[in-house]
């Protein structure tokens, strides 16, 4: 695939949506490939500075294991939740000891079963990390119900288990993620086992029946 990822090529439905094959930066309904630290031939921080955007050093690493890594979802955040026009930096990463699993409850908006993060020793998956400005994190808080006036579906926590590495093997430290914070957003247990999103597609996941994993079985730092 080429170096530009128009939203139309990466629909958000079915949840969690499709994802570009490289890291990318997103502006104006288009992602631009970020490969080898370069965007359109420029180092990432130079590319950001030329657009008046915050450098990577001023951004928080937020693991995205569901729909927030989808370009069309990013445009939805801009249109409906007031996400600013500043570029979004989305790094493709590989996680170990962590897994996206299906949550116990369904989304009220469309009946889809959302993902939630779980600690799973020995599991390796591919996800993404937003390098997000404080303003962008505030919008994610609203989207995930983690803002002060939200419903608390998820909360933003610092990961204290597993590893997150970029495509070139760089270990990312001080990574945060939105983790389940209510019974509806605890991992779904079917016959006592969590169900990885990588193993079961959305059309099957929304039909699953099980129970919510109890809070004492999973912990993240605040």
UniProtKB/TrEMBL annotation:
This is Gamma-glutamylcyclotransferase. It comes from Pseudonocardia sulfidoxydans NBRC 16205. Keywords: Transferase. GO terms for molecular function: transferase activity.
């Amino acid at each position: 695939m080429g170096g530009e990822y128009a939203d139309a090529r990466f629909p958000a439905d079915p949840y969690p949506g499709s994802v570009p094959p490289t890291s990318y930066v997103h502006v104006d309904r288009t992602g631009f490939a970020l490969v080898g630290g370069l965007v359109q031939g420029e180092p990432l921080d130079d590319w950001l500075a030329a657009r008046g955007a915050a450098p990577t050093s001023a951004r928080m690493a937020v693991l995205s294991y569901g729909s927030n890594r989808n370009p069309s979802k990013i445009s939805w955040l801009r249109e409906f939740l007031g996400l600013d026009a500043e570029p979004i930096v989305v790094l493709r990463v590989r996680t170990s000891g962590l897994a996206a699993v299906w949550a116990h409850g369904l989304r009220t908006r469309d009946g889809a079963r959302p993902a939630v993060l779980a600690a799973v020793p020995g599991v390796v998956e591919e996800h993404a990390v937003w390098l997000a400005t404080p303003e962008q994190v505030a919008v994610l808080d609203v989207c995930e119900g983690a803002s002060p006036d939200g419903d608390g579906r998820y909360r933003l926590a610092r990961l204290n288990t597993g590893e997150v590495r970029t495509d070139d093997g760089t270990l990312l430290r001080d990574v945060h993620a939105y983790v389940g914070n209510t019974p509806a957003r605890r991992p779904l247990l079917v016959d006592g086992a969590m169900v990885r999103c990588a193993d079961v597609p959305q059309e099957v996941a929304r039909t699953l029946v099980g129970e919510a994993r109890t809070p004492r079985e999973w912990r993240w730092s605040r």
